[in-house]
Design a protein that fits this description.
By secondary structure, this protein is mainly α. It has six helices and no strands. Helix 1 crosses helix 6. It is elongated.
């Protein structure tokens, strides 16, 4: 299971580059990552860069939403378990019900932990964001220079 931000990088640049980027982060070679991402983004049109920015913002919001909603998911899990026990169901019904609810909660817990503590993915996304903002600003300045 990958973090939401890791999926974004893999979707944009491929699994191979993602692996290379993580290795470079471990070696503290962030500038190499920036240059590679910048080089890839330079070949894209202004519209593609704007779409990439919208996509980046959407993925960041999704990552934040996962963290914010986890408290509600935990409370819902506890209420569901309590309700199952309070209903005094027979064991053949109670045990599978508890297992299904617990398995669902375990999946959400893993998703939360993966997205909350994906430091490596956050650093790659920040480098991506800087390169994207730099190119968008550069394109904007070029357009202003042409208008003058």
């Amino acid at each position: 299971m990958k973090s939401v931000l890791g999926k974004l990088i893999q979707r944009r640049f491929g699994c191979e580059r993602y692996t290379i980027y993580t290795e470079k982060l471990n070696k503290k070679e962030s500038m190499d990552i920036f240059c590679d991402i910048y080089g890839n983004l330079c070949r894209q049109s202004q519209e593609d860069l704007n779409e990439a920015l919208k996509e980046l913002l959407g993925y960041v919001q999704m990552s934040i939403r996962i963290s914010r909603n986890f408290l509600y998911i935990t409370m819902g899990y506890l209420v569901a378990i309590a309700m199952l026990f309070l209903l005094e169901l027979s064991l053949p019904v109670l045990l599978p019900s508890v297992a299904v609810v617990s398995a669902s909660y375990l999946y959400k817990l893993l998703e939360f932990v993966k997205n909350r503590y994906c430091d490596r993915d956050v650093r790659i996304v920040l480098i991506y964001k800087i390169a994207l903002f730099h190119l968008l600003e550069e394109n904007c300045l070029q357009k202003e220079g042409q208008k003058l």
